[in-house]
Design goal:
Distance between the termini: 34 Å
Largest sheet: none
Protein name: VanZ family protein
Pfam families: VanZ
Radius of gyration: 16 Å
Structural class: mainly alpha
Strand content: under 5%
Oligomer: single chain
Keywords: Membrane, Transmembrane, Transmembrane helix
Number of domains: 1
Length: 131
């Protein structure tokens, strides 16, 4: 177990950062004139994009491959979307000062899929270049 977690260290730290950010009450910050209406969704998408890249990096290191296999990418997608759903459930039922939103979960899922797709494309391009 400890050996497995060492590969996912950066992803675990980023996931904890996401959890903390999603638990903090922001009050009226979202209604500030500094932010546009979809800014919250863009933040969710970006946070999960980074999380998925770090998680895929851990998977590549764990399985000692040069690219991510499709079955690992599917597993990673399920784990990341489940984590997004977990955070939204926490916001809905535990962090009552925040609101769990289906649109936030959709933004989390899109960010996770974008990150996994980016890793697939990048790793395949690097492997193609090296061959």
């Amino acid at each position: 177990m400890k050996l497995t977690l060492k590969y996912y260290g950066p992803a675990i730290l980023w996931a904890l950062f996401i959890l903390i950010i999603c638990a903090i009450p922001f009050g009226d910050v979202g209604s500030s004139s500094l932010f546009f209406p979809g800014f919250d969704k863009l933040v969710h998408c970006g946070l999960f994009f980074v999380l998925s890249v770090l998680y895929c990096y851990g998977s590549i290191r764990k399985w000692q491959t040069r690219s991510i296999r499709i079955e690992i990418a599917m597993k990673n997608t399920i784990v990341l979307v489940s984590y997004g759903a977990f955070i939204e459930m926490l916001q809905r039922y535990i962090f009552t000062w925040r609101s769990g939103d289906w649109n936030d979960l959709l933004a989390d899922s899109i960010g996770a899929c974008m990150g996994i797709f980016a890793v697939l494309i990048t790793s395949n391009a690097i492997n193609y270049e090296n061959n």
